[in-house]
Amino acid sequence: MEIIVSANEARKSSPIPPPDMKGAHVAGMEAYRSLVAEAEADYSGYWSRLARQFVSWKSDFTVGLDDSQAPFFKWFADGMLNVSYNCLDRQVERGLGGKTALVFEADDGQVTRIDYRELLARTCRLANALKARGVSKGDRVVIYMSMSIEGIVAMQACARIGATHSVVFGGFSAQSLRDRIQDAGAVMVVTADEQLRGGKRLPLKAIVDEAIALGGCETVRDVLVYRRTGSDIAWDASRDRWLHEETDGQPQNCEPEWVGAEHPLFILYTSGSTGKPKGVQHSSGGYLLHAALTTQWTFDLRPDDVFWSTADIGWITGHTYIAYGPLALGATQVVFEGVPTYPDAGRFWKMIQDHRVTVFYTAPTAIRSLIKASEGNEQVHPQRYDLASLRILGTVGEPINPAAWEWFHRHVGGGRCPIVDTFWQTETGGHMITPLPGATPLVPGSCTLPFPGIAAAVVDETGAELPDGQGGILVVRKPWPSMIRTIWGDPERFRSSYYPPELGGSYLAGDGAIRDPATGYFTITGRIDDVLNVSGHRMGTMEIESALVSCTDLVAEAAVVGRPDETTGEAICAFVVLKRARPSGDEARQIANELRNWVAKEIGPIAKPKDIRFGDNLPKTRSGKIMRRLLRSVARGEGIAQDTSTLENPAILEQLAQSN
Ligand code: WTA
Questions:
Q1: What is the mean pLDDT of residues 627-641?
Q2: Which fold has domain 529-657?
Q3: Is 74 marked as a binding-site residue?
Q4: Fold entry, domain 29-339+423-499
Q5: CA of 398 to the centre of ligand 1 (A)
Q6: What does the alpha-carbon distance between residue 289 and residue 275 come to, in Å, rounded to a whole number?
Q7: CA 20 to 30 Å from 248, out of 22, 77, 322, 595?
């Protein structure tokens, strides 16, 4: 493990006090501290109290935390519940049937509203259709769809019948989709004919066909297709079914399948240190608790709020803070199909204005790109829009640099809205370190303090706690309800990735962190493993390397590292040795483009390297290990001031440095 303290440190200034928020769910630091103290005094009891408050149980649990098989922790294990019941039926029973659940805005601006009663009815019809096709409790269903009401309905319908869904982001390639279908052993794929983004039609069903044609997906019996654009698509009558034909005529009620709290609600694949993505498995009860609890406390969500998370359901944020958390609280939320820059870079601001959004949650990369766009065009500056409805802002996925924070605070939040910089991961299920808007004084660039009950700490390689002010490894000392349960099909990898023995039973997040000596606030300093964060998307360097070397006609060897990028946070930089002489000039540019397209085809466009440099060789130690530390310096354009005495072939660095 290597600890890199990035340049993105928190601004050194006095914290901005929280606004006076009457009736906030966590009102003031006193209230925060008393929750922290409650968790410390009776850890299992604290979470059990909240689990009874936030989740409706079919039958109550008797044990909160069960750590008898650590690190395979269980929470509320003998309790029975249904997640879809908690998100939908419960709202109707509370009299919220006519309340708007989703305000869907399509790419072309068309708006569809759907209330809780209708969302429940549609979920039940699809759940019945899934059952009619033989999908049952414990089966896996892959959902490969863009942002849509149907995508959310598909997730809820799986939850309703106890099927475990695995949503695959619509930007992933056929190869990546195939790998995920195969690893999950899915019996069904739910998809759409096409997706619409930024005025363009992009294929989905055709990619499913391609994925299945690659082989290894024999478990898939049916492909359900939502008709989004109506374009002509290839059809295999033995397996393809229109979603509307399957659901038409299905009854609009469907008894929920009551499952144990530990029943796997979903698997979501994410990148790790090896070439193979990990299927992060989440539970039902503990996950739902934290989804609902953090949605309420971190965003201080009230009944009349209009919540908007700009994430995609293909990522964890779209699970916890679109498909589950807000629905479990009976909230009204905006769901957006398109992209922030279409038809122009004022789209987000216009949507906030049109839908009177009160809580807005987005990614630092989006903010940075919209800052850039508004610098070139006054028309799309947030000041041109009426954003007075906003109450709270949030960011997720990557560190937010203080300059972007200030801009967001001033121009979008009008200087009055607290920004919650939420640190968490696919594996953590929900927020881990975050300000609470009515309690925590803010420091731009810092995710501030642990959510009450989360035992975050900064340690060294031996697991010993470090003094504040010293950068180290971020760990979580105690298990929490929404944590990853295992890696699907690979419990050993779960144990070795997250619970390495030297850390003595703490969860290893994979990030570095530092705490401020004066405030105890955390600042995340970036990944300490071979994972990059590009525009808030996690990418494994080894995944990209394997994609490059699988281009066997061209590539002999490849190494991938990250370098800082103003807009995307990090950029992917690949060092490539070809099977032919090192190219230069136009030829180098042309081959680099070929390789970028190759990677897009293998993984997806988000994995395309920004820089590709060619060398006769790669810098290696005498024992043949690639020296990534040096490659990182070359990628950043830094001088090679580091010790190169262990390097087998020092001249190669000069060559790589000049090959840009
Ligand atoms: C990074 C996204 C700094 C971090 C929810 C983490 C952050 C990885 C923040 C998880 C933040 C996420 N500040 N870094 N507020 N939020 N990260 O699994 O490196 O897609 O480990 O989950 O994103 O990415 P993932």
A1: 86
A2: GMP Synthetase; Chain A, domain 3 (3.30.300)
A3: no
A4: Rossmann fold (3.40.50)
A5: 5
A6: 32
A7: 322
